[in-house]
Each structure stands twice: as structure tokens, then as C-alpha cells.
Amino acid sequence: MLKHRTVKSLVGLLLILVLCAAVLLGCGNEGTEGDDSGSAASGEPIKVGVVTSVSGSIAADGQALLGATKLWAQEVNDNGGLLGRKVELLVEDSASDPKTTNEKTKAVLGRGAEVVIGPILTAERTASQPAVTKAGIPFLYGTFYEGGAYDDLMFIGSEVPEQQTEQFVPYLAEKYGPKFYFLGSDYDFPRIANEKAKGYLEAAGGQAVGEEYIALGTTDFSSVLTRVADAKPDVVFCDVVGTDGIALSKQFYDYGLSKDVTFASIVHMESYIDAIGPEASEGTIVCFGYFENMSSPANDAFIESFKEVEPSVPATTITARSYVLLQMWAKAVEAAGTTEGQAVRKAMEGLTLTETVIGDVTMRATDHHCAAHMYVAEAHDGEFEVVKDLGLIQPGEDQRNAN
Predict the structure, then answer these.
(1) CA–CA dist 31, 26 (Å, integer)
(2) Is 4 inside any structural domain?
(3) Closest by Cα among 150, 44, 112, 76 to 326
């Protein structure tokens, strides 16, 4: 009798264990049906990789980008998150160096990044983007660049040379004179941008009276400026970047060249003007799709919020475009119901956002670039003042392998 009761007890215990396992299995499946590799368990944050220069020669631009990501993440989390999950920034300093950028990008991928944004320089982008997209993860790039880059998982929200130079160069030639001296940093963006600018200049009846490309890290421009003075140009067309560009501008002013030569740039943003100072930057003329002091309901609200996050960092076109690019990615994630790369790609292609800080924006499906409303502005008393609205300019016909 005792043996029979023992067997019955064991059977009963086994039945209880089976029922418990079934309940636990059911609970584990609840809420995950339909999930894929891009959807983590409920409550786990969506990890956003931010690889940008917070140190080195291009740090001011990297800090402007980082501020945009901080504000975007704060706003998303304050509004309940994305797909019901908080977003978490995985920030790494690329130190304005391609090798470091590659290492830091792999680091954020190893930590589970579901999207990566940044960095700044062309060489940094080419050192980081392939690893990201090969992993099936979207790569977002919000820095103006030389154009011609494409991957089905890379999305570019920034200006390309056609947008910055096609109308800007003829405007400069007509207003200030047809003789240009081109000065650029020695890498792809300045070389390709200037080559296109020279074509627009020639079509407008102008000519290049000089052209030089200067190694990154140069601080003494005395010999360069002597050659500029000897050539007697009407316009110096500059895309010398970062701390180099700041040093060049100061020395251009100290040499007295600003009295007779117009200093035009497609890289000098608000962060440069802050570093150069109001007096030395007076009269600098630039072309971008965004300026910090442009007044609109969207930009007024953006700047107020941005200054709470980064009170000492100027907002630039890189800031605004990176912020909008993240908004576009988030909208695509919501539409796809997942962060999985290819699903997000399908939702992002052709996606339009209206009334953003840079106006209405559409991610072109063919090549993942955006049209931009462009402006010419001059520096006066340490701020840019828009002097000409160039209207909406397309990023060429097709940026896939455009160069």
C-alpha cells in the first residue's frame, strides 16, 4: 500500500511539473510572437551607436553631431521610447582618425548597436561604414561630403557638392569677380568638391588662378597666403577643414587679404566662426542648407531644446541634419515595427518628414540622398546672415557611384 501511494505521489508531482513548464513556456512566448533579430525583449533598450570626433582636429564638428544625438535620444525617451523601448546611446570618440574610427565602430557593434550614426571625415566614413552595413545594420551619415557613396543600408541626409556649389559659385563670380583661388585640405571631399566647382566657374565665365591642397594638421599658411596674394584672385574658395581651416582664416585676416579678396567657404560653419572670432571672420561667405539663427517655429523650438542639452556648442548644418536623419530612422522603425536593417530600409526609402528643423525632407529611394533647401550667408558680427535663398536643390540625378 505504501509503495502504491509513493508511485501515485510521484506521478502527481510529475504532472504538476509538466503543467508549470507549459505555463512558463507560454509566458515566455507571450509578447515575442513575430519578433526577429531586430526586436529585443520588452524593456531592453534600443542601442544607437554614435561614433564621432569629440577630440582631434575635427572635434568641433563631432561635438555638434553628438549634441544632436543627445537631444534626439532625450526627446524619444521623454515620449515613451521607440517601439515601447528606451533608446540608449553608445558613444565612442573617433578622435578624428580613421583607424580609431574603425576600432570604435567595431566596439559599438560588439555592444549590440542596432543603428550607427557618424562620423565626420570621408576617411572616417569609409573606415567604418562597411563593417556596419555588412552586419545588416543601418549606417546614418549627416555630414556634407563629396557625394558618390552608396550602400543599400547607408542613408545620407547631408549636402553634396552639387547642392553647395552649382548655384553658389556663379553667384560669387557675378558679385565678387571671376578669378578664384581654390584652397582645400588634401583628401577626397575638397578635391572632388573643387573639381565640380571649377566646372561651374568655367561655365559662368570665370577662371581658377590657383589651386592647392594642404596636408591635414597644417598650422602655418604663410607660404600659401603669399602665393594667394601674388595671384591676385577676387575670391578664395576654401574647403580647408577643422582646426586647419580656423588657423587659415585667422592668418588670412592677419595678412590683410580680406581687404581685397572675398573669403568663400563650403566648410566654415558656426563652430568655425566662434573659434576664428567676429573680427577675423567678418565677411566670410558660405553656402549651406541650415544656419543656427534661422527663424522658424521648428528651428526656434529646436535651438531652445538644443541649448539645454549643449549650452556651449553651436548648432550647425551637421547638427540639424543628423537630428533629422535620426528622426527619419525612428519613423521608419515605427513603420516597420522592428529595427531589423532591411525592414527599416524598405520603410525609409521614399520616406518624407514635414516641417522639420530643415523643412520638408524626403529620403530619395534610388540613392538614399536628400534634396536640400540651400542658402548663401555672410558672417557679420560673429553670426551668419542669409543673403540669398537658392531654393530646393536636388543632390544631382543619382549619387550611386557619381564620382
Answers:
(1) 10
(2) no
(3) 76
